[in-house]
């Protein structure tokens, strides 16, 4: 019992009263499935987009590097934590992203939260940061941690972005544009090509989060920024299509060297451990050659979207493997999730504050390991559920 427990309990009661208290529920993840309460469900809510989290090559190399090089790196990168394995994976990532350099981070959340303050402190007293309104919490956090009030543009509305930049044409500060390439909750894409043009025209630094595109979209799965010709900084995570954990930042050699010297979240944390590096390295062997899986994934997503369109369900402009089933009301989204689960499909309800008020949804996240039969079952679950009541039933 701690002295703050009464306050914790009060906060929890308040959340429960507003239907917003969250709890953890364990499951056992398989390849495209999850076992909960002894039932095997189709997992339509994981970010294991290529099914690599259960690929034997990743498991083997992870075990091999663990036994050969140790289960922990033992220190931070600048002390004795840098192994040749880190340098190898960083060089391979830079090749994959077609950048001069790449740097490993502990997680995607931590990379965004730590890199943005390091960049913004360099930019002088009043940098101007233009951020998509639906950017991930870690991006918001990084900008906030730098003590900067971001200028938010309407989601994917680059005319609005341009107008906001123009309104501040006389501002002396450096400009930054921060966006995701595939939005985590809507599954739609930013127009990186146009963002590049805008950034060039207004002398802005373009920061792109490719968490949900890495391994999935762009040439050989390298992401949408590679397809569009690059960005000043691209980050992404190994925790989704790469089936593992950790994150990367890719960009110029100077950027990477600067971060090694100035980014607290890189400097003051222990280096990624060998088993994780082994899994990433094995994923790098596989991902570029997985065009077939990537095509199958997008065909599957297209099928699910087409059925939802027939049912009159809004999918928020999704064009990727992330297919939101927009419900609006938070409790209706929970009912829909429960109904899908009764039909053998796990689709998690996402509610405020993760998404804006009245945009609660089931976030379907499909995987290339969902075969046609699994997609058929997801479609049947959605159709049956919507057929019963016209909505969640
Ligand atoms: N950026 C985006 C857009 C994300 O969706 C996420 C994770 N949901 C992250 C960053 C954080 O990545 P990680 O899970 O590796 O911390």
Automatic annotation (TrEMBL):
Cofactor requirements of the protein: pyridoxal 5'-phosphate
Molecular function via GO: 8-amino-7-oxononanoate synthase activity; pyridoxal phosphate binding
One GO term of the biological process aspect: biotin biosynthetic process
Assigned EC number: 2.3.1.47
Superkingdom of source: Bacteria
Pathway linked to the protein: Cofactor biosynthesis; biotin biosynthesis
Keyword tags: Biotin biosynthesis, Pyridoxal phosphate, Transferase
Subunit structure: Homodimer.
Family recorded in the similarity comment: Belongs to the class-II pyridoxal-phosphate-dependent aminotransferase family. BioF subfamily.
Protein name per the record: 8-amino-7-oxononanoate synthase
Record lineage: Bacteria, Pseudomonadati, Pseudomonadota, Alphaproteobacteria, Acetobacterales
